[in-house]
Structures are given as C-alpha cells and as structure tokens.
Amino acid sequence: MSTFCPELWPEEPTPHNLENCRECGLYEHGSRMVWGEGNPEAPIMVILDNPGAREDREGNSIVCGTRQSLQQAASSAGLKMEDLFVTFILKRRPVRAYEKNQVRQICMMHLEQQLQKKKPELIVCLGNVAVQSFFQNPEADVKTLRGSWHNVLGYQTAVAYHPLAVRRRPNLWSMFLDDWRFVAERYHYLK
Ligand code: SF4
C-alpha cells in the first residue's frame, strides 16, 4: 500500500510591493494572490497556469486535486518536497472570462523577476497554457514537447501534462509519471 500523503506546502508570501498588484485587472475577480509554494530556495521550479484554492469556503486549508496529483507523481519519481517550488503564470485564479493573452503577458513579468532571483536549476512546465505562455509560443503543446529538455529564457525546461488533465484522463498517468522520472533523473545527475 502507498504511504504517500499529500500536504499543503508552505506558501511563499507575495512581495510587499506587489500585495495589491492591479496590473492585469484580475484583482476584480476576487481570488486571492498566491505567489508560490513549496521550498522558495528549491532547485526545481514547477510552473502551473494559475493557483487553485488553498482554502475551502469556510477558510479551512485544503490540498486540491492538482496539488495532490503533482505531489504524488513527484514523490513517486523520487523527489522530495524540499526539491520543489511551485509558482504560476498568473498569480491570481481567473474566475470568469478575461483577456488571456494580455493578462498572461503582464503577469509573466513577475515570473521573469522570480526566475532572476531564484535561478532554479531546472524548470517543469505543466499543461498547455503554462507551456504556451512560458515558451512564448501559442502553438507549443505538451504532447510534442514532452520527453526532451528545452532551453527557455536560459533555463533547462521540461514539460508535462497538467495534473488536472491527468486526473480527468487516467490513461495519462503513466506518461505523467514518466515525465517526472525524466526530471528526477536529470536532477539527481546534476547533484
Ligand atoms: S495576476 Fe499578476 S499581474 Fe495580475 S494582479 Fe495578480 S500579480 Fe498582478
């Protein structure tokens, strides 16, 4: 029986000067900002499209399905929580229609600042939305790019399906695991 147990990773606070960021207009959607979570000094940065809730409606902490599947696959591949920092293309979760390209372009500036500060050894980009934004290529997709290393903004980057896609289509799970093993192998080689 698996001993894996998902946990709510510690949240990295939003920098004080950006706590009230209104640059892209998503503040009007009412979702709160999540700057990142996991180990802020981690060698591997994981990039998702936007943050799922960390609390339910009553304010109790929850570990959403995306986080559960991500943690489970990373753990199965031999990675530890302290190896990973998770952040997002958008630091707020959109809850209705928005100007996708414009908003992503604006918030990508914050991700680029995070990269300059943290300088991760490896990046794992999850899902087509995050991949297209990070690769600055609207045609980029996980299916084509997975299983190889790509130089993006000077960082070694791997891609994998979004954990929610994997939950919806269980046949993707083995590929998702393969992608995390691919990352873990490079990480352990670099250590
Ligand atoms: S999503 Fe990004 S740009 Fe938009 S308000 Fe939040 S931090 Fe600012």
Automatic annotation (TrEMBL):
CDD domains: UDG-F4_TTUDGA_SPO1dp_like. SUPFAM superfamilies: Uracil-DNA glycosylase-like. InterPro entries: UDG_Type-4/5, Uracil-DNA_glycosylase-like, Uracil-DNA_glycosylase-like_sf. GO terms for biological process: DNA repair. Its EC number is 3.2.2.27. One of its GO terms (molecular function) is uracil DNA N-glycosylase activity. It is an enzyme of class 3 (hydrolase). Residues 35-181 form the Uracil-DNA glycosylase-like domain. Keywords: 4Fe-4S, DNA damage, DNA repair, Glycosidase, Hydrolase, Iron, Iron-sulfur, Metal-binding. Pfam families: UDG (PF03167). It comes from the Bacteria. The keyword DNA damage applies. This is Type-4 uracil-DNA glycosylase. It comes from Pseudoneobacillus rhizosphaerae. The gene is udg.
